[in-house]
Design a protein that fits this description.
It contains five helices and seven strands. With about 170 residues, the chain is α+β, with helices and mostly antiparallel strands. Strands 4-3-5-6-1-2-7 form a seven-stranded antiparallel beta sheet, with helices on one face.
Amino acid sequence: MDVCAIKVTLLGTKPPVWRRFLVEQDITLRQLHKTLQVVMGWTDSHLHQFVFNRRKQPDGILLGALFRAPGTKLIYEYDFGDGWQHEVLLEEVLLGDESFRPICLAGERNCPPEDCGGPYGYAELLQALRDPRHPEHNYFKHWLGEPFAPEHFSADEINRKLKHKKSGVRRG
């Protein structure tokens, strides 16, 4: 079985939010969406779409139909209101066995909170949280409801969630 080594980068975030993970090449884009939600830290509360070569792709297409060679990219758009765009890059195709399960290998920074206004709103949120004198500091702290650590990343936490996610992956 072929396994895709993928790097996903959330466009418009500085410094960038990214993850490196492995998935089977024969999953559908719907299954990739479910995996991206977990590895990025989103809550699957909004619409999404995949764009490959400037064309929207159906969720039922197999990842391997698009990702044939390292360097291939597609765009994963999530939450059309906030306009989050993720560059999904195939870094390598590896050989896996029947015991393979999706896994997050690396990454940096916490996923932005849902509904924070896209890259621009997220940058404003971070600026306000860093400065207790910022006029929106208390508003954002209250809106978040709990402390937000933008630099936090844990592959172990993501992998625990991936382990419990129903992938729907077909087994030969």
